[in-house]
Amino acid sequence: MSSVIEVQNLTKRYRETTALDDVSFSIEQDAIYGLLGRNGAGKTTAMSILTAQNFATSGQVRVFGQAPFENPAVLSRMCFVRESQKYPDDATGRHALRMARLFFPRWDEDLAQDLVEEFELPVKRRIKKLSRGQLSAVGVIIGLASRAEVTFFDEPYLGLDAVARQLFYDRLLQDYAAHPRTVVLSSHLIDEVAPLLERVLVIDRGRILLDEDTDALRGRASAVVGSSAAVEDFVAGREVIHTERLGRVTSATVLGGLSEQDRQRLREADLDVAPVSLQQLVVRLARRAEDSAPKHQELVP
Amino acid sequence: MEEGRPIFVQIAESIEASIVDGSLSEEERAPSINELAAFHRINPATAAKGVNQLVDDGVLYKRRGVGMFVADGARARLLARRTQDFAAAYVDPLLTEARRLGLGPQDVADIIAERSATTRKEPS
């Protein structure tokens, strides 16, 4: 597989804040990526710069090997579904779909019409009058029907109920299987989207915290639960990212897979092992990064 | 899908389970990668990884342009492997718990004999 996006030492500064801090990563062709992180972590900024809707302060961005800015050859192959997409005041859903059809060379009108029906989108209504969920549906339909070689979905599910979200995930997988392309999905509902993702990029306060295959992440952390003394004994020398105590019971989240030998030891020590979901892992890693940041500053006067 | 274990491993195991319980017989077409992805709502690349593992293990084989099929003798091989794993997966934890309760191997054997007489009517 070759990469469609290359980002090198990308930094974005607004007046006081650094939204992206010397970030480097690449995105492979025909894979579904999860771009995960807290609000304000820099997810939207990264996607905006990649789609030339924002400027970088410094660093290099290459999409299909070229700089995306004012480059129609690159831009028409990318679709960015923004969480807060603005449309002209009097535009209807139908207008928005027609514009998208003109812009995206691989647009599939039949798919768009099917999706309009499935999401029950009132296309004749002015977008201004749509509910939050219907507004999200407009974005989702454009994102899927554009069949763009690289599609960014920035929290596309806001206001969508569980049924509509599942519809989105199902149609995304279905269409992706038939027409492989690169999809970058930013989401807070990490456990909900985890099975869709081939690779995960976790961004935290402008830095990449994690860039790994989703499968490798599963099973990378485990929660060891049992009597405090036994837990402490077992986790000694391991990387512990989180500890909770309740009376004499301790739950420690450790990084690194467990070998058969470890499992044997756990059984003998009467310790339970609970899986750690991707969402928990991301939350714990982000917390740990936060905790270590001020300490680091203290060390550097 | 269960948390904490790679999904592709679980996909491979679910296909193996179908072969062992006979719902997928030898020389029958196995579910395609896209069918698996749609059914389990997972990334097709992950489903492909699970299927490829079974191809590497000789459980499935590819017929060009047609799909994946269950290999001849796959069921017997899977049964042999699972029998091998049986002790580690079931007997060891059983003995660990028994030791905790102060039960010796003979006590455990007695319980097994008693339970298998009452719970299942299967021929032993």
Q: Could you explain how this protein is built, in words?
A:
- The complex is a heterodimer of chains A (301) and B (124).
- With 301 residues, chain A is α/β, with parallel strands linked by helices.
- Chain A has two domains: 3-216, P-loop containing nucleotide triphosphate hydrolases (Rossmann fold, 3-Layer(aba) Sandwich); 218-299, Alpha-Beta Plaits (2-Layer Sandwich), CATH 3.30.70.
- Helices cover 37% and strands 29% of the residues of chain A.
- Chain A is built from eleven helices and 13 strands.
- Chain A has helices at 43-50, 72-75, 93-103, 109-118, 132-145, 162-178, 190-193, 214-217, 228-235, 260-268, 278-299, and strands spanning 3-13, 18-28, 32-36, 58-63, 78-81, 150-154, 182-187, 199-204, 207-213, 221-227, 240-246, 249-255, 272-275.
- Chain A has a six-stranded mixed sheet, with helices on both faces. Chain A has a four-stranded antiparallel sheet with strand order 11-12-10-13.
- In chain A, helix 4 packs antiparallel against helix 5 (132-145).
- The relative contact order of chain A is 0.13.
- The model of chain A is unreliable at 295-301 (pLDDT under 50).
- Chain B folds into two domains: 7-72, Arc Repressor Mutant, subunit A (Orthogonal Bundle), CATH 1.10.10; 86-119, no CATH class.
- Chain B has five helices and two strands; from the N terminus they run H-H-H-E-E-H-H.
- A two-stranded antiparallel ribbon of chain B has the order 1-2.
- The longest helix of chain B has 27 residues, at 74-100.
- Classes of the chains: A alpha/beta (301), B mainly alpha (124).
